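Q: Could you fold this chain for me?
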Amino acid sequence: MPDLSRRRRLLVLAICCMSLLIVSLDNTVLNVALPSMQRELHASVSGLQWTIDAYTLVLASLLMLAGSTADRLGRRRIFMVGLVVFALGSLLCSLAPGLSWLVVFRMVQAVGGSMLNPVAMSIITNTFTAPRERARAIGVWGGVVGISMAAGPVIGGLLVQSVGWRSIFWINVPIGALALFLTLRYVPESRAPRPRRVDPVGQLLVIALLGSLTYAIIEAPGAGWTSPEILGFVLVALISLATLIGYERRRTEPLIDLRFFHSAPFSGATVIAVCAFAALGGFLFVNTLYLQNIRGLSALEAGLYMLPMAGMTLVCAPLSGRLVGSRGPRLPLLLAGTTMGASGLLFAAFDAQASNTLLFTGYVLFGIGFGLVNAPITNTAVSGMPRAQAGVAAAVASTSRQVGQSLGVAVIGAVLAGGAYAAAGGQQFVVAGRPAWWIIAGCGAAVLLLGALTTGRWAKATARRTAALFEEDRPGHRPADARS
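A: Sure. Below is the predicted structure, expressed as structure tokens.
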């Protein structure tokens, strides 16, 4: 990638952030629309779960393929294809005649979405090469998630109340078209010097693993946890995982380079991403159903109730980027784990739904934690990795986010479906939902613990050793004993 002026670099960052905006808006707007979709399409809890997880599963399955393909064929080219497919999928979602078609069109959306966020992050990583400047750029990137969280519920509520839930997909089309025009005009093309080859076997194993695991969790409350169908899908997931690990270890250029995980910070960031986004997926899912179906709020009112959480994410995300740039990832991760865990605990143990004061306190705490956690995840994932593999490293981090959100929606939805979601009374819903809040609190505790373990001196030493492994792959590199 050629050297760009500061103004041009900021413009590239803004264009990449537009892609994140439409993907993030899609998630937050959709959550507000779930009760309306449930009524019009006569959807069950599992049907609602699939409208979210069909998207996140396909996204998670294809992100690493998209990252490596962009490194090979050109990041700008793949990014532009992603914008077109995502906008087309959004238009099709707005025309879906039923729940099954909506799920299919959400999968089309996800194919386009898989070419956006990891590729955009790779473009940013190769545009902002100085560590501090990159951390700040990633902080801005994380801030866009906060903007989408703040704007999404309100925009979604207004659209759902005034036009209907189908209109929530329309907003992606003009934003996608503008991003496509600006990308063609201002974003330079870039490729990896030594891109990876396609790994179709690894790709199929990832799809089998994520698909079978999520299906088992979502459908278990209805079919029974010990039914042959569910046990069969669990077995497929376990076999896929074992086969994937064994196959990728032997492959010269794997879809998932397991050497990445020799780095404790990278491994920690991956698991933290799963935990944080599982908490987010569960948090949004349970709160949307509670506010609209139990409290009886309109879509717009529910969106406004969620503003304290979204607003704190908006404030804390860029602050987290600055903290990572100046002091490293440890402090924001510890703060994020503490506040997310405290939020879950407030609902699980202190009945936060009983008063608006406690409810909003829980929302504020969760927003602070989620705002702080994004920048250290992304920065840790790409730091220390060779720029040539930036797309793959960023895609692993993005995949972890989507896997986490899929699992969060699947697990929390299963808890609600197996409990008293069908109960008419609000208090029964609150009592039955407490296990879900304990799960969210546990996710926060995991972020805190892993943040402490994977940011210390020992962890940094493992990152240096991992970087040395990739150095050995460079053409013309000779081991130290050969040079002596």
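A (continued): The mean pLDDT is 83.
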